[in-house]
C-alpha cells in the first residue's frame, strides 16, 4: 500500500467561560454521528490572522461577538491513518487556542453559519464538562486542563464620607460585580495618579460631588474569581485604600458618569447598613468595623 496523502490543517479556537458555564459548539452529525461538543472555532483562511479567524468562527458558530487575549496555546495532533469522508489520509492538525470572552449582556448563542460543521451552540455547566457528563473532544479536555483565568490586580481608593448618621454610598450597576449592592464611592487609581487625586476624580464622576480627601484610614483587599464588566472571567485581587472624606453638608449626590459601574448615589443611614437592611460590599462593612 502506498503512502497516504498528507493533509495539514491550522485552526483557531477559544475557551470562553462565564461564571460556571462554558460556551461550546456541538459538531454536526456529518462530523460526529454521536453528540460531541467542542470549543467554538475553526480553520484559518489563507493569509488570515489566527486572532481574526477565531473571532469570525466564534460568531459563525454561536452568533456572539468575542474578544480574545493576545497570547495563545498551540496543540499538535498527528493521525497517520485518519479518515476524512471516505478518503484516508496522513492528517496533521495544528490547533491554536485563545482565552476569549463575550459581553456580559450577550444574547443566547445560536448558529449563524448554514450547513457548517456546527449543529448547536450553548452555554453548558463547566462542572458537567469536567466530570465527563457532557461528551467533549480531546481539545476541550486538554485546553481546560491548562486553562487559567486572566489575573488582574487593581489598586483603588475609596472614601468614608459621613453626614450625621448617614454615609455616602454608591450602587453597583448591572455592569459591575454584585449589581444592586452598595459600596463606598471611589474607584481605580490610574497609572501615575496619586490615590488622593484618583479618589477625588472618582467621587466627582460617581456622585457629582467635590470632596476633601483626608487621612488614610485603612487598607482592605478582596480576592475572587468573577466576571468583569467586559465579560471576561478574571482571577481578581482588589487592594482598597480607604480614606476619610468630607463633603458639603447640603451636597446632593448624583451620578455624572454614563455607562459605568455605578447607577445611583445616596446618603444611606448607617443603621440600615449595620442592621442588614441595605446590601453592601465587604469594603463598606470593613470601613465601619463590622
UniProtKB/TrEMBL annotation:
Its cofactor is Mg(2+). SUPFAM superfamilies: Nudix. Keywords: Hydrolase. PROSITE patterns: NUDIX, NUDIX_BOX. GO terms for molecular function: hydrolase activity. Residues 7-146, 152-290 form the Nudix hydrolase domain. Pfam families: NUDIX (PF00293). Signal peptide: none annotated. InterPro entries: Nudix_hydrolase, NUDIX_hydrolase-like_dom_sf, NUDIX_hydrolase_CS, NUDIX_hydrolase_dom. It comes from the Bacteria. Belongs to the Nudix hydrolase family. This is NUDIX domain-containing protein. It comes from Nocardioides donggukensis.
